[in-house]
Design a protein that fits this description.
The structure is a single chain. With about 60 residues, this protein is mostly beta strands. The chain has one domain: SH3 type barrels (Roll). Helix content is about 10%, strand content about 45%. It has one helix and five strands, in the order E-E-E-E-H-E. A five-stranded antiparallel beta sheet has the order 4-3-2-1-5.
Length: about 60
């Protein structure tokens, strides 16, 4: 997948707050993403995040 820092992504599963859109803050072996509903930041393994992405809504650094 071609994901960059600053991208907004739509996930298959919702965050407990009810939002399903996230902003990508850091990329590496782990992804750091911020929920756009409540602002919580989450670190998750790359494989898990890439598997749960429905689509990329907006590119950050074009």
């Amino acid at each position: 997948m071609d994901i960059k820092v600053g991208d907004r992504i739509l996930m298959k599963k919702k965050h407990p707050c009810g939002a399903d859109t996230f902003s990508v803050l850091r990329i590496g072996a782990d992804f750091k993403i911020r929920c756009l509903g409540c602002g919580r930041e989450v670190m998750a393994p790359r494989v898990k995040v890439e598997k749960n992405i429905k689509k990329i809504l907006e590119n950050g650094n074009v």
